[in-house]
Amino acid sequence: MRAAEEPRACVARGSSRAPRAPRAPRAPRAPSSEDARSSLAARLERLDWDALERSLWDRGWSKTGAPVLTPEECSGLVALYADDARFRSRVDMERFRFGVGEYKYFADPLPPLVQELREGAYPRLAAVANAWTKALGVRRRFPQTLRALQAACRKAGQTKPTPLLLRYETGGYNCLHQDLYGEIAFPLQLTCVLSRRGADYTGGDFLLVEQRPRQQSRGESIALEQGEIIIFTVRERPVKGARGYYRAAMRHGVSRLLSGTRTSLGVIFHDAR
After folding, report:
1. Could you tell me which residues come within 8 angstroms of residue 13 by beta carbon, excluding any fewer than 6 positions away?
2. How far is CA 254 from CA 67, 177, 199, 212, in A?
3. Distance between CA atoms of 124 and 45, rounded to whole angstroms?
4. Residue 28 has pLDDT above 80, yes or no
């Protein structure tokens, strides 16, 4: 049997060489873009989706309450606004009487963070969307993955990505509207404010107005913190009445900015013609 080896001495017997200095500990690895995406997926998974779904049924919108994107992620997206190569088009809102401000639609490929957010949120919202269409007696059902929804969009001639960055400065606002880009319209979308309320801007609340049959419209003004996400209906939501569910149309916008600059991310799941 082979005897166990004795530990090697650091310095050979009779040698004058100094012992080797211990190795310095390795610096921690900087987080990669894949780490950030994995972290975002975990943050989305930890959201209280039951509460979010209840709010969507009750009001047609829900917000996460806590930030989903970190300040660093928000700043990184804001920094992209100056890089026109990342976008397929720019819209001057005042020119088209959409409001005062501007927005830019991202080109393909989307920034990894935006793609991960779009893909990660979609399956949860698809379940709500299909429950809504069933309640309203609509035959259409939406697929379980974003990729399958995009394939359906392509067949309908909707091939342009719709996620966008919106920017408002003092006095800017967004008129009430709906984001419809073709035959296929996924019923839910989300917005994340990237700027700091109170520090980067004041005013600029998110607005929602619900048109109720045979009643006056109802509006809500919703303040959002940096990184917080609001989910809301694109066009209409089901409301339970005495004879079952009926459609209540909703539009969204942004109130006038009192000071500063406000940048936000909009994520629409269907693509555009």
Report:
1. none
2. 19, 10, 18, 21
3. 10
4. no
Question: Are residues 117 and 238 in contact, defined by beta-carbon separation less than 8 angstroms?
Answer: no
Q: How far apart are CA 85 and CA 78, in angstroms?
A: 14
SS3 state of residue 228: coil
This prediction has a pTM of: 0.86
Q: What is the DSSP letter of 85?
A: G
Residue 256 predicted with pLDDT over 80: yes
CATH code matching the domain that covers 33-268, chosen among 1.20.1730.10, 3.40.50.720, 2.60.120.620, 1.20.1640.10: 2.60.120.620
d(CA 193, CA 72): 13
For the stretch 115-148, pLDDT in tens is 999 999 999 999 999 999 999 999 999 999 999 9
- Whether the CB-CB separation of 96 and 182 falls below 8 Å is answered with no
Pair 265, 194: CB distance under 8 Å: yes
Q: Say if residue 30's pLDDT is above 90.
A: no
In Å, how far from its chain's centre is CA 14?
68
Q: At 36, is the pLDDT very low, low, confident or very high (cuts 50, 70, 90)?
A: low
